[in-house]
Amino acid sequence: FLASEKTKDHPERLGVIPYRSEEPRGGADVRIKFNGDAKDSVGGTTALLVDAVTQGDKMVTTTGGTTGSGYVNLGNNMLPTDGSPVTIEIWATPHSRPNWSRVFDIGSNNGNYLTHAWSYQTMDNRDLVEIKKGGTAILSNQYTLFGYTLNTEYHYAFTITPTADGKATIAWARRDARTGALIKQGSGTTSAAWSVADIAGGPFYLGHSQYYPTDHNANASYNEVRVWKGALTDAQLSHSAALGPDVLPTESAGAIA
Question: Is beta strand 182-189 parallel, antiparallel or unpaired with respect to 168-176?
Fold first, then answer.
């Protein structure tokens, strides 16, 4: 089953063991709910709201556009470096299609990152999932999660699993944030050795690419972000998406073994 915050003192009971740079904890190890603040309710850090960002009762909204239009910096060292699988969940709502705007961007420089762009340029029939290492794209896909409806909240999930030969398999999906139903998904394996340790020390941005100044910041609302140490299954992710932000899956909520 998936972890709740109530079980965080009993990691042996968890189906997914999360990671922080300080120490392991049970439950979602990074959980930023944006319910009136930008604090990680598990890890204790606070995200930085940069420039024009509106903090609401349940989410933050970035205005979109060029430099100065606002984004969210969740901080550095938000991912494990010990070779474990990782799952990222994000509940987010796109409001428009600024040029190359990001759902998220994690990395140390413009040659080493993992990113997902809402749209390829401003197109509604192309998006971008990409990993670069040493300036070379070792995974790139432009035709999987496109076609979203503006002003509609979605659940985004990225699962990263190391392979035996030192590469990584990435699975990503967009789900209905109300029902958990799968809308679109994709997957791929890096063409060269890679792990999240290659990018973990860099910042975890929402709605921003630090490394390409011509790419616009997102015009979007972010409801919740979670990072789990472990590879959540499709069934677990659908269950989590259906429960929605503000609710962690638990046994009593019909969680999945």
Answer: antiparallel
Closest by Cα among 57, 63, 62 to 37: 57
d(CA 117, CA 79): 20
Number of C-beta neighbours around residue 252 at 10 A? 9
Phi and psi at residue 236, to the nearest 5°? -65, -40
At 6, the amino acid letter reads K
The predicted-structure confidence for 223-238, as pLDDT tens digits, reads as follows 999 999 899 999 999 9
Alpha-carbon distances of 39 from 36, 48, 88, 181, 207, rounded to whole Å: 9, 9, 17, 29, 18
The C-alpha atoms of residue 59 and residue 28 are separated, in whole angstroms, by 18
Q: Which residue type, as a one-letter code, is found at position 139? A: L
Contact predicate 71/206, CB 8 Å: yes
- pTM equals 0.86
